Amino acid sequence: MVASPKYGQRESFEARGRGALQGGSTSSPKAKPLPAELLRVNPINPETETLRYAADFLSRGSVIAIPTDTFYGLAADPFNLAAVEEIYRVKGRPDQRALPILVNSIDQAVALSRGTPGSFMRLAQKFWPGALTLVVNASHKIPLKVTAGTGRVALRWPRSEVVRGLIEQFDGPVTGTSANISGFSSCASAAQVMKQLGLRVPLVLDAGETGATLPSTIVELNGDAWKIGREGAIPVRDIEKAMKEK
Description:
This protein is an alpha/beta fold. The protein is about 25% helix and about 20% strand. The longest helix is centred in the N-terminal third of the chain and has 12 residues, at about 50-60.
């Protein structure tokens, strides 16, 4: 168990320069990887300085772990191909699997989609911010690597002040794949993230336990058609009810 410092206080575990871009990277190929920096953040009123510090990692192409309203996720710049590649390395994730993107407004999500169907707005206005992921046709501006060559993108606006503020400080959306090694359990605490990925990322934002037991519900939209990709925190019956409403 990793002891967490007070809100806004940094804990480096070992001496590490702020300029380090990736967890596990050192000046010598024989040196041992350094543990991630654990940075406590208030989940209700996240400190601006803390979010700005985290956003600086994203601007430099790093992959960091952040809390959401479900589980912890891996945030990176989805338009930086090197950062996107790093996510797959960190997770050990097959590159045939697309990466979800987190936003902090419906308008931001619409800008990342193409030919957004009416059902998108209906579900987004009903359940966002919240534990709903909507899969739609991706805007041409999104790199094919992010969509795994499918031309489809999974978008979510979490009910998380940390995510909202981080996107605001970064001035753009971030990736939101779960912060765990592919095939292992999702992480509901920073301590769990440190156990799995502590030597693979440079920074973990610690907002405590998320309290989540289920991931987001995934709904795939294609024109007038829709289907459940995964039932999660939002029950299928709630999605069905919303889709029937006029």
